[in-house]
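Subject: for your reference before the review

Hello V.,

The reviewers asked for a structural picture of the protein, and I figured it would be easier to keep everything in one thread rather than splitting it across files. Below is the amino acid sequence we used in the manuscript, unchanged from the supplementary table.
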Amino acid sequence: MHADRPGHRHKQSTMSAATRWLWPAVVAIALAACHQMESSLPAKAQCLDSEPPPIALPGGRVSIGSNMAYPEEAPERRVRLDGFNMDATEVTNAQFARFVAATGYVTRAERQPDPALIPKGAPAALFKPGAAVFKPPAPGHPQWWVYVPGANWRHPQGPGSSIRGRAHFPVVQIAYEDAAAYARWAGRALPTEAQWEYAASGGARTLYPWGNERSPEGREKANTWQGFFPLKDEAKDGFAGLAPVGCFEPNGFGLYDMIGNVWEWTATPFTKADGDTGAAEPVYTIKGGSFLCAYNYCRRYRATARQPQEAGLGSNHIGFRTVSAQKRPGQ
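And here is what came back from the structure prediction:
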């Protein structure tokens, strides 16, 4: 698979024939590629230990899109948004656990897959409940995305893994419908792409929400991959893998981790006009990049960056946050 570079439209069919068995969705998430290992906090890290309230954002005409990066981000344009509020952090394991306890909800990764979405003759593993997990390539295993039976939000890397002691980490292995179900339960909604991008910018129109340098004065401003992806994450940001929420400075609006850590679902479909997804089910736009995005691959740790993601398959680098639901006439 080639390394994405701004100015080159990514292709959906660059993986080996064997890997194509891992659902069309695995192809899409590989392009968002980004490494799940146990996190190690630097001594100086000060992560949130509470749940801050949602942040109110004013409405008005705002700029979204970019003419300076990947083609799918263009064109830069002005849109009008009503005011809304957004979760200050990604939804955490603790918050999602409360939802499950209150409703008995079972996520997509915990249910039997729909045989209609699985190619004829596919490996038996794809017929079992599970999700996609990043695994560093190794001799005899060159691909870094693997469908793992038993992987789900409680066991993000598959059987044997756990979220014990990770209450304040973003919940992952969440399909689109799971995120939407949580939002409805909370009386909220998933953000549109325009809402998300405006919020992520922090009111800035620089390359990154914090300026035009990715690492000003050598300081990492988000949880991304440092080093040569996919072989080694040097963890210069203090994390080799997923981080708890709120370990980096908030943006200009007071929102944490809009860039890096996990990609986030939006309510905006990624259509054929945006690029050929080759998917057998609905595809939505995800935003923000993740801990797997590196300088030599992905490079989508920017507010304007966007990726397609099949609605039905979770992975260990995609999460979500919610916004206030729009009131209907008469409410």
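For the response letter, the relevant points are probably these. The chain is about 10% helix and 15% strand. Residues 210 and 251 are 7 Å apart (CA to CA).

Happy to draft the paragraph if you're swamped.

O.
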